[in-house]
């Protein structure tokens, strides 16, 4: 794909003056800049390429898939391969097997190659601003000028850790699930996992044979069938993933809107691990951790836990604060409908928690959400062209 270099045609009052521009920055004009080459950014790219749109995908990591490679060593997808393919390329594994995180990383890299998607790796976006009707995407060495921007940087960028973590005794080893790799990182003794959603439950199972594990937090519910049985894999799971998570629980249904507020505050129901698996592995489940006293984590009934390690499985923020535009609501969430950002025609997001449905942050939801965003961009470009 050929990208044009040129001069910024600034229009409108937000245009930077010549003095404000960094003369060292190269300038590139393109129809669409997609930020992030995860499943969502690549899916947007797939759909844009089919429309013949000129675009570039900017990815901060050195290799496509690195976000998956960086996750913990034993991680396998909780969705079987049948649900892990993106548009145009099924996942190359037995339909009911669970790919490893590295299989997923390699799949994404192969996907980008197969469709010759124009991904620039090792390019971190520092800022998105607007100048008239053009968006300015600034990276270390280049300023991209585009009519459309898609922030596909996911809901999993900035770890959420409560402030009282700083009051824990320094002898307690503590870190976020985003940097957990394996049991060797922990002090000997017991570990408290704060947050009982999928990451907390999966890490609890990973640690149960080497540490005494406490799992704290409200139980988010689970899929009520043996997950890897024949019946569950072939009948229940397709219904849950393809119908319930993808079609019923959307922002367009009353049931979906109710599920949205629950899932945004408590996470998805447990998909692979069941409470009986946790019990069988000896994981002790306790209520919420609400603070710290005497350097120890404190539960909501006032009980203190004497542990050697704490892993914060407390989720992530989208971390889109490099978008310097008034697009966030009071809770810091992007105001959007199906990825189209309110008040910013031309700006889109993809992959946010419950952007459109429960499946929006899952692999099998990427194709539809990305297709919608690409269609809107296509419509807008056609309208502008007259
Ligand atoms: C531990 C874990 C396990 C999961 N397992 C499953 C599963 O089994 N099945 C399932 O369906 N879903 C699963 N998910 C949910 C979801 O599929 C993944 O989180 C997935 O990685 C999200 O894809 P994405 O494209 O939205 O974002 P990401 O994969 O996070 O990709 C976003 C990309 O944007 C890049 N980026 C961010 N900021 C910038 C910037 N400023 N400039 C340039 N690039 C930037 C990042 O480097 C990253 O590569 C899991 C999530 C987690 C956390």
UniProtKB/TrEMBL annotation:
Keyword Ribosomal protein: no
Region (Disordered): 1-23
InterPro entries registered for this protein in UniProt: Auxin_biosynth/cation_transpt, FAD/NAD-bd_sf
Record has Nucleotide-binding as a keyword: no
Domain of life of the native organism: Bacteria
UniProt keyword annotations, A-Z: Oxidoreductase
GO MF term (any one): flavin adenine dinucleotide binding
Short name of any one Pfam family annotated for the protein: Pyr_redox_3
Protein name: FAD-dependent oxidoreductase
């Amino acid at each position: 794909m050929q990208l044009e270099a040129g001069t910024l045609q600034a229009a409108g009052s937000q245009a930077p003056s010549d003095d404000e521009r960094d003369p060292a920055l190269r300038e590139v004009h393109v129809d669409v800049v997609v930020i992030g080459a995860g499943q969502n950014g690549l899916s947007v790219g797939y759909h844009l390429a089919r429309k013949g749109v000129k675009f570039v995908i900017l990815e901060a990591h050195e290799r496509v898939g690195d976000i998956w490679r960086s996750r913990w060593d034993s991680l396998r997808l909780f969705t079987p391969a049948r649900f892990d393919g993106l548009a145009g390329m099924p996942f190359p594994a037995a339909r009911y097997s669970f790919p490893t995180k590295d299989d997923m990383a390699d799949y994404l890299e192969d996907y980008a190659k197969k469709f010759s998607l124009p991904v620039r790796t090792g390019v971190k976006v520092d800022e998105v601003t607007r100048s008239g009707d053009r968006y300015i995407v600034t990276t270390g060495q280049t300023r991209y000028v585009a009519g459309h921007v898609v922030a596909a940087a996911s809901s999993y960028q900035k770890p959420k850790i409560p402030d009282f973590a700083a009051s824990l005794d320094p002898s307690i080893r503590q870190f976020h699930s985003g940097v957990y790799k394996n049991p060797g990182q922990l002090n000997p003794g017991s570990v408290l996992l704060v947050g009982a959603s999928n990451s907390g439950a999966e890490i609890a199972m990973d640690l149960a044979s080497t540490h005494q594990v406490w799992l704290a937090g409200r139980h988010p519910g689970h899929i009520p069938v043996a997950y890897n049985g024949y019946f569950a894999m072939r009948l229940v799971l397709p219904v849950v993933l393809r119908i319930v998570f993808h079609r019923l629980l959307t922002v367009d249904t009353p049931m979906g809107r109710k599920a949205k507020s629950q899932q945004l505050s408590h996470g998805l129901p447990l998909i692979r691990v069941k409470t009986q698996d946790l019990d069988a592995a000896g994981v002790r489940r306790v209520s919420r951790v609400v603070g710290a006293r005497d350097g120890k984590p404190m539960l909501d009934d006032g009980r203190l836990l004497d542990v050697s390690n704490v892993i914060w499985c407390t989720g992530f923020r989208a971390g889109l604060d490099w978008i310097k535009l008034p697009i966030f609501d009071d809770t810091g969430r992007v105001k959007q409908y199906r990825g189209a950002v309110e008040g910013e025609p031309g700006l889109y997001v993809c992959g946010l928690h419950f952007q459109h449905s429960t499946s929006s942050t899952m692999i099998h939801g990427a194709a539809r959400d990305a297709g919608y965003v690409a269609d809107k961009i296509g419509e807008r470009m056609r309208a502008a062209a007259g």
